[in-house]
Amino acid sequence: MPLIADRLAILGLELPSLATPAGAYIPAVVSGNLVFTSGQLPFVSGALPATGKVGGTVSPEDAKTCAATSVLNALAAVQFAIGSLDRVTRIVKVVGFVASEPSFTGQPGVINGASELLGEIFGDAGVHARSAVGVAVLPLDSPVEVELIVEFA
Amino acid sequence: MPLIADRLAILGLELPSLATPAGAYIPAVVSGNLVFTSGQLPFVSGALPATGKVGGTVSPEDAKTCAATSVLNALAAVQFAIGSLDRVTRIVKVVGFVASEPSFTGQPGVINGASELLGEIFGDAGVHARSAVGVAVLPLDSPVEVELIVEFA
Amino acid sequence: MPLIADRLAILGLELPSLATPAGAYIPAVVSGNLVFTSGQLPFVSGALPATGKVGGTVSPEDAKTCAATSVLNALAAVQFAIGSLDRVTRIVKVVGFVASEPSFTGQPGVINGASELLGEIFGDAGVHARSAVGVAVLPLDSPVEVELIVEFA
């Protein structure tokens, strides 16, 4: 398995600098050999690339890209917590919240943006359990929020 | 404590074959002595027995049945992950998402369909912590989605 | 670090008696050195101090107070599970669900009511990872529901 930094470079990706949490908490906490991340929004350089509800003003395709961006922010949080992504032994769980018009039922396709990227970066260690749900609204009107539980050694 | 297979037979229940996840992930992942399941929909033979929002086109009674069915699918995922449900030492946590009309506030009664079944199958080991929330919409317009954290030995 | 009971007294706070769960489950379960609480509503003496959606009939300020009250109920559940809050070594994760009008996007400010109180009570051990989401509706029309994962020794 190549180093994760090399995998990211091959994929043309770069970990963002850590987004400042919008409240009295931190991006990730370690307990035992698990990292629990905070819910991550798809910030790019401090701004949300899209706002609104999927099935309304936000397309499923744009939301899927947002889910991938949220994962990059989550991985920056994991790196903050354990120093290096090369310590990751398993992506255990992904929860993806999709701000949805009540008529939009394609949440799995949106959160595949998170799942597929984790597979590309971590290979077999990136294959996870997942929940995808459609919520009324997310902080700052973000279309997507993603949280991770990650095992490390 | 009888074997879980015997308990299921006494209850007239059968574990379904494992539902294929609707995305780039798997039904359950083990970390340490915990199993984290993916969010489970109430599939029966590959189809949802009901679709829509509870308090709208779906009755609370039908949604409660869906919550129990989701648990059976979740237990099939746990069995996939650890080989046998006889290894389960505790149902730790249940999260139940109920697709709800904003005026429907009976989520606890719906998710009791999950909780009561876990008690019937696992006895004291089935008594869990739980969150029940009402969300705008769920994948494929399912009325209910249930995820589990399960401890095993 | 002073005893948690002393911290609570200094802050003018008192742990409530344990709210009876509204279903077939218990307020908290221990697995390994983690406590998983059930989702907690802001009950005060058995009644909800506010009902409705934030951004609608419930103000963000009142909802923030409800988030703090939900944390007190969650800590009563943790104490029930492990005997004493002095055993807490880390608040690992907070998930805050805010029943929201689809136009209300200030969930982080509401859930800061939970986060800030945990910091005041537990100091560095109270600094946690967090997800805040806006949902369609919560049990009994509660404006807020909060669940915790807590590490103890």
Give me the secondary-structure topology.
Three copies of one chain form a homotrimer.
Chain A lengths: L3 H7 L17 E4 L2 E4 L22 H23 L5 E12 L7 H16 L6 E7 L8 E9 L1
Parallel strand pairs in A: 3-4
Antiparallel strand pairs in A: 1-2, 2-5, 3-5
Helix pairs in contact in A: 2-3
Main sheet specs of chain A: 5 strands, mixed
Radius of gyration of chain A: 15 Å
SS-based class of chain A: alpha+beta
Total strands of chain A: 5
- How many domains of chain A, as an integer? 1
SSE pattern of chain A:
HEEHEHEE
Runs of chain A in which pLDDT lies below 50 for 5 or more consecutive residues are none
Strand content of chain A: 15-25%
Any overview of this molecule?
The structure is a homotrimer of 153-residue chains. A five-stranded mixed β-sheet of chain A has the order 1-2-5-3-4, covered by helices on one side. The first copy, chain A, contains three helices and five strands. Helix content of chain A is 30%, strand content 24%. In chain A, α2 crosses α3. With 153 residues, the first copy, chain A, is α+β, with helices and mostly antiparallel strands. Chain A is globular. Chain A has one domain: 60s Ribosomal Protein L30, Chain: A (2-Layer Sandwich), CATH 3.30.1330.40. The longest helix of chain A has 23 residues. In chain A, α3 links the parallel β3 and β4. Chains in contact: A-B, A-C, B-C.
